Fold this sequence. Notes:
The chain is an all-alpha fold. Helix content is about 85%, strand content about 0%. The protein contains 13 helices and no strands.
Amino acid sequence: MLRQSLRNYYLRSGKAQTPGHAVYLTEMFTQRLLTRLAQIALLLGFLGTWEAIVHYRLMDVFLISSPRRVWQTVLWLHADGALYWHVGVTTLETIVGFVSGTLIGTFSAALLWWRPSLFAVADPYLTVLNSLPKIVLGPLFIIWFGTGYVTIIVMALAISLITTIIVVHSGFLHVDPLKLKLARAFGATKWQTFSLIVLPGSLPTIVSALKVNVGLSWVGVIVGEFLVSRAGLGYLAIYGGQVLNMHLVMTSVFLLAVCATVMYQAVALLEQKVKARHQTD
């Protein structure tokens, strides 16, 4: 019944040109709906199991908290006025680190594409820096930049920058070589080749790098807040652990998950639009 109604809707609205197209759109919508319902069911099942474990005393609530206690803590932070301050601080630091890492990384990748000899020199160092645990740089950043927000942003930048350079530069190198040969045959300059062919052709790769950077930026900010912050969700988690308040710790984890999901979905939406436009060009 639902499938038939959807097929009729697609045909009446003009979104489907033929009955076969309407069937295809209906199947795609049904698949997305089932996937979304399965995701919601999985989340609700996890929360229900967590609450049941605490309710039936299979584990002590002191150790793992519970969804009900987490929600109560969120309401308490809201009433206290601290919720939006801590969420805002961490989100702003993450956005600054995310944008900075993307811009600097893309510019650096373009420079390495422009000068292949420079990439040949830098390649082993990029590999080493990419494999280096960035948390070991924390004490250096504290000494160099102090114990303020700058250190946290630099930590986020350090974690996401090298990955951005490597991924975006790889995208530049994998642009259709036939287009590059055609541009050279018509006498295009290197700047024209980059701005008209390489950069537009690498936009899907750049946007995919953004999705990776979202997670890396959040990791960098939380590591930085663990080290130096006096505000933010990372600070709340550390403070909750110090005073043995697992409700506050789990609330911080929950809020981090929500914020990271919202930011990731925003980037995923941007990726869909870029890929759709790229396919039509």
